[in-house]
């Protein structure tokens, strides 16, 4: 293994051992190979930098040597798709995918594979920085490296001044909370770069976890249609909170570009005061009629392409005439109906499939009003050992639920936002 810091600024010798100049940088083409090949050298001769293709490189192990003593002294001009290991990677930030954090590159690892030198990893250890800062005669005595394989390192295209074809597919594998931590810690430009590369669903899941300030900046900075597509993938409560923090004209334009049904759900929540149960309630939950059996409900759930998440309970309503074929046992116009009870998921799973739902449901269910504060919903969930509390309107109709996650996120925003926070290098 070779390390960039060990041969930068060292003499570059020709075939007959004469000094051509000093090694200023190595050029790598990224985008297609898992381990990008070195495509050329930038050599410094006095104040002049010139390019030498990698085909003329014989060795950089111990001494940088070319296969010829004749070089073309044309000035170096960077091309699209190329990065410079010293200028664009060394001392820059990358994302350590397996470590789920941002790290600083203190050295770059290069390996010769057959006849081609390739970028294979980065050293993020403090020892690498000490080796660079200390005398070369003592650098070999500083032991310890922490190498991140280049396949696990997400390079940020905005770090380079040219267009790069960089894939961000691996970031979609991260937990949305971890990805949000990274996006919050990066610059706005780098954050926008990542969001632009994610699909709408992944971007929505991640943006629900970022700080309010970063979310507002990202939404206002992106195309209105893209912002609308992302908000459609968010929960209505999160989308409502996001829109309320935007400039009014921008928020109205985004709402106008959303699908009518999703926009209506968001506008309904915006009608409630911030911090109220109505603002943070979810409207995607499972409603079923009282006359069905446990097996009917399980069959309905299995048949759905998009089951509410989290699925904490099933809400039993007084609507005996609704068709059982509907996902919730209710037609779209009958969603706001009287609540008769709830069936906790545990009881639904362990009950005999033939049991009528009325026999396994809790009849005396505590509820809140949409105008009640989030504190009231959290207190009721704590007292009655609930993971969610139903929200009823003035006509005693079920219009939503408040989950414990949503209540805590409202009551303890900083603590909840920083749950599982990791230290960034």
UniProtKB/TrEMBL annotation:
Keywords: CBS domain. Residues 361-419 form the CBS domain. The keyword Ligase does not apply. InterPro entries: CBS_dom, CBS_dom_sf, Mg_transptr_MgtE_intracell_dom, MgtE_N_sf, MgtE_transporter. GO terms for cellular component: membrane. Pfam families: CBS, MgtE_N. GO terms for molecular function: magnesium ion transmembrane transporter activity. SUPFAM superfamilies: CBS-domain pair, MgtE N-terminal domain-like. This is Magnesium transporter MgtE. It comes from Candidatus Accumulibacter phosphatis.
């Amino acid at each position: 293994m070779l390390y960039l810091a060990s041969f930068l600024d060292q003499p570059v010798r020709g075939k007959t051992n004469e000094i051509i100049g000093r090694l200023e940088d190595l050029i790598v083409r990224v985008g297609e190979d898992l381990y990008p090949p070195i495509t050329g050298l930038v050599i410094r001769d006095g104040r002049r930098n010139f390019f030498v293709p990698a085909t003329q490189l014989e060795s950089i192990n111990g001494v940088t040597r070319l296969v010829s003593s004749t070089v073309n002294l044309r000035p170096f001009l960077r091309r699209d798709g190329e990065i410079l290991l010293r200028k664009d990677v060394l001392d820059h930030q990358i994302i350590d995918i397996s470590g789920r954090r941002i790290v600083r590159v203190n050295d770059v690892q290069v390996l010769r594979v057959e006849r081609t030198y390739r970028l294979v990893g980065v050293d993020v250890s403090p020892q690498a920085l000490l080796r660079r800062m200390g005398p070369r005669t003592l650098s070999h005595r500083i032991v310890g490296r922490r190498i991140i394989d280049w396949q696990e390192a997400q390079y940020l295209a905005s770090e380079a001044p040219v267009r790069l074809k960089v894939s961000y597919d691996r970031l979609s594998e991260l937990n949305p909370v971890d990805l949000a931590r990274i996006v919050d810690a990066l610059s706005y430009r780098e954050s926008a770069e990542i969001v632009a590369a994610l699909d709408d669903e992944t971007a929505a899941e991640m943006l629900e976890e970022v700080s309010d300030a970063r979310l507002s900046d990202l939404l206002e900075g992106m195309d209105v249609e893209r912002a609308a597509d992302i908000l459609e993938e968010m929960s209505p409560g999160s989308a409502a909170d996001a829109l309320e923090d935007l400039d009014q004209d921008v928020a109205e334009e985004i709402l106008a570009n959303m699908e009518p049904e999703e926009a209506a759900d968001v506008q309904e929540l915006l009608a409630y005061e911030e911090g109220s149960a109505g603002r943070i309630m979810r409207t995607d939950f499972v409603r079923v009629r009282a006359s069905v059996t446990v097996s009917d409900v399980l069959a309905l759930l299995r048949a759905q392409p998009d089951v509410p998440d989290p699925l904490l309970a099933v809400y039993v309503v007084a609507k005996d005439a609704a068709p059982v074929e509907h996902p919730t046992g209710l037609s779209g116009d009958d969603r706001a109906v009287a609540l008769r009870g709830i069936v906790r998921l545990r009881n639904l799973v362990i009950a005999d499939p033939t049991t009528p739902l009325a026999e396994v449901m809790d009849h005396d269910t505590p509820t809140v009003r949409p105008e009640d504060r989030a504190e009231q919903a959290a207190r009721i969930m704590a007292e009655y050992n609930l993971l969610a509390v139903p929200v009823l309107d003035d006509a005693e109709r079920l219009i939503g639920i408040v989950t414990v996650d949503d209540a805590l996120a409202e009551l303890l925003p900083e603590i909840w936002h920083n749950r599982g926070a990791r230290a960034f290098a």
